[in-house]
Amino acid sequence: MQKLIWLVLFNTICFTCYSQFGNSWVTGYSGNRILFNGSTISTSIGLNPQKYFTAGHSSISDSLGNLLLYSNGFHIFNKVGGYLDKGDTLVPHYYFDIQSGSSFLSQTSIFLPMDSNIYYFITPTFSDLRYDDCHNNSGNCYFDLLLYNVIDMNANGGAGKVIKRMQPLMENANLRKTQMMACKHGNGTDWWLLKNEGDNGDVHTFLVTKDSIYDKGLQSFANPTWGEWDIRGQSTFNSDGSMFATTSHGSSSGLIFIADFDRCYGLLSNPRTIQMPSYSQHLPWDTTIMERLSVGLSFSPNSQFLYVISQCNVHQFDLFDNSWYHVSGLDTIPNKFQEYETCYMGPDNKIYIGNFGGLSKQMSRIDNPDVKGAGCNFCPKCLRLDSLGSAAYVGTPPCMPNYNLGARACWPLSNEQLIINNEQWELYPNPVNTILYIKHAKGKKKKLYNTYGQLLLSTTKEEIDISGLAKGLYFLSCEQQTQKVLVE
Asked: What distances in angstroms separate CA 454 from CA 67, 411, 447, 449, 464, one per listed residue?
């Protein structure tokens, strides 16, 4: 009966949570507009001349799909192209000046909406000191700052205002320049923000709520080692938020990290590293380099496939049978300033692939991403901005999480169901990877659940063999009290 209640609650929440926060894109030189309206895509010229929205940009719409806010990574603009009040120059001045006022690194800004018309805007960046150290050959060129800004769109009569500017989430850090993405919490309101650490697979995890942001620590993984070359790369979640993947230009190794993700507790589990295949098409300007420079990725809507984008090739990886399919090489005449870049699934469930270098007026597209092999239907240059004139360089899709992801039932339903200190019974070791022991509960019934509330086993024994369970979070219930069990 309790499971039935959870299922009804979950379905009710999901049917009422739909929004169109991701329907309006701003991209390219001058901030050109792309509007998805059902099966129709319309484009219009941007309102920000001399500004680049080609890599580090982001945007968000209101619940009706109308453009609300957008950014080139360094500023926040309102829907008519002006600076949002207190929304200009949101990174340290030295780095801002060197980069001519626009970010050219992927996934370096993101908008996260909260209740009551409050929005977070988050940017990883250089402090002045770290930038100097980097360019004085110190060997440390990782971002050392992660900053957040709070936007109140109720202010100024609905025109909005940044009410907290450049607040530090992390300082003196070693963050990759790219690879930042968010996923809706299981409660359907809060957000998980994941940001990759320096030269390895470690991931910083933050819980973003309306009132505050909480640092939930570093999730560490032995692999992969990315390499120090971190100017291109991407992180992504699948459509229901249950899987996470990330890749980086790195050391030309073509490595991709994949893990399961728990939206209720922000935990990554069952990690694995795959390597994209080397392909015979080399880089056009340097035939000595084998082309497996992974720069972007996106899950298919049905989560069966992971599309991996390199500088010159598009690959499809089947997560069911671990097979690779080569989708396409370059979609244009080889040119060192015209390569593939990050890719995102659009509101129409098609995958849009951006360009690096800013010379193209088109994006390529995968029209049927749920189909294996050639049936995925790669469509070269099919999102076109040609009609917008000479300044219509398109760049990449904006950095946007899945704003339409709804709530899911989390178990236990509240923290009150958990015990922190219980003198009557204890668990050890915890985390555990083989045998879990229970003290002071002899002869009492213990029940082990997963995070969906599904009963996995029931026993009166004082030890449980969990070696067959997948890594992740579980709950052990005894005497109407529950404790967390972390399986490693």
From this structure: 41, 9, 10, 5, 17
What's the pLDDT at 293? 83
One of 2.60.60.20, 2.60.40.10, 2.130.10.10, 3.30.360.10 is the CATH number of 18-388, namely: 2.130.10.10
361 or 162, greater pLDDT: 162
How much is the pLDDT for 13?
38
Q: Which helix (H) or strand (E) holds 15?
A: helix 2-16
- List the structure tokens of 89: 């120059």
Distance CA 206, CA 193 (A): 5
CA 107 to chain centre: 8
List, in sequence order, the alpha helices (H) in 66-184: 93-98, 128-135
Q: How confident is the model at residue 291 (pLDDT cuts 50, 70, 90)?
A: confident
Domain 415-487 belongs to what topology?
Immunoglobulin-like (2.60.40)
- 105-140 burial code (b ≥16 CB/10 A, e <16): bbbbbbbbbbeeebbbbbbbbbbeebbebbeeeeee
Identify whether the C-beta of residue 249 lies closer than 8 Å to the C-beta of residue 297.
no
Closest by CA to 162, choosing from 229, 86, 215, 230, is: 86
Q: Where in the chain is the domain with CATH 2.130.10.10?
A: 18-388
Which uninterrupted H or E stretch holds 428? Answer: strand 426-428
The whole-angstrom separation of Cα 389 and Cα 425 is: 71
CA 130, 135, 137, 139 torsion: positive or negative?
A: positive
